[in-house]
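Hi team,

As requested, here is the filled-out complex form for the cobalamin run. I kept the field names the same as last time so the parser does not choke. Let me know if anything looks off before we queue the next batch.

— J.
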Amino acid sequence: MKESIRSLAEVWGVDDVGFASVCDYQSPNSPSIESLFPGARTMIVLAFQELSACESPSPQMAMGARLDLMEFSRSACYRLARFVEGKLGSPAMTVPLSYPMDYSTPEKIGVGEVSLRHAAVAAGLGAFGRHNLVVHPRFGTRVIFAAVLTKLDLAPDLPVGKNPCNDCGLCVSSCPAGALDKEGKTNVLKCLRNSQPYGMGANIAFWSRFGDATGEEQTAMLRSPEYLSLYQSAFIGYQYYCFRCFAVCPIGRGVCQE
Ligand code: B12
Ligand code: SF4
Ligand code: SF4
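And here is what came back:
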């Protein structure tokens, strides 16, 4: 069964597939899989290589390619879940790639329903690097993950032996926000301010200023480049302006699947 999943995924352009038992998924701050999908046994984790667009000085080029990859990976993931339900006869659920997230309590902010990095580690697709991202043994850091949860009982893959991160420190020194200075913990606020300058924080600040502004000032604010960028980020869903720690990592550079 695992082989039929792997072969199909390969045909659909998935770069790597790993299998984890739900019991081996250890993400201390995330909800339990049982609370999301009672009876789930296996996580099928998919890895997708990012294009060199993440190196572009233009955040529009980098984010445009990320959106393409997200669309592609969501579609492959959804197809796999349909295959598991339809052909293998087991209930299946796809995991949100990034959003939506649960913002109902402050502790939940920044925590996905399923941590795809912890899932990828459990499925043998890589290990946490110095930048707190998962480094794939062949493709390096430049991968994003997607996952399908299922009640199928499939044998888990082995964890990667040696951590592919060589501790060169490039990711840390390249972070413009100093968000990686402390080992083992990304400073989320520092990263967010730099990587999503038109994200939720900027939105709240804009509308707070808007509420205090005169009618004339409000009209000017709605015609400003700042508002256009906020509007664009909101309708995209979110927009990253920084890919540095993701792009500079030397591991797996030049390895291309197709
Ligand atoms: C919210 C979120 C963010 C937030 C918060 C990040 C955070 N601290 O978790 C912000 C906006 C800051 C962010 C930034 C980025 N993100 Co983001 N993000 C997510 C999302 C949606 C949820 C993450 C989550 O649940 N975090 C909460 C829990 C898991 O974190 P935690 O328990 O506190 O664990 C942290 C530490 O304790 C440490 N850690 C935990 N265990 C261990 C073990 C060891 C040995 C070590 C060393 C560290 C370590 O790592 C964690 C990160 O700080 C995931 C998608 C998903 N559903 O998983 C994508 C995801 C993690 N993001 C991703 C990416 C690529 C990025 C960015 C590069 C942005 C970009 N341009 O693409 C940056 C990188 C920042 C960085 N170096 O940490 C990818 C990572 C791919 C990969 N190769 O690992 C993911 C998996 C999206 C995807 N579908 O592939 N992200
Ligand atoms: S995405 Fe940018 S700001 Fe965030 S940790 Fe990586 S390099 Fe730093
Ligand atoms: S840039 Fe260097 S230190 Fe950072 S994750 Fe990659 S190999 Fe590890």
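Two things worth flagging: The pocket of iron/sulfur cluster (ligand 2) is lined by residues 175-177, 179-180, 186, 191, 194-195, 242, 244-245 (CB under 6 Å). The chain is about 40% helix and 10% strand.

Thanks,
J.
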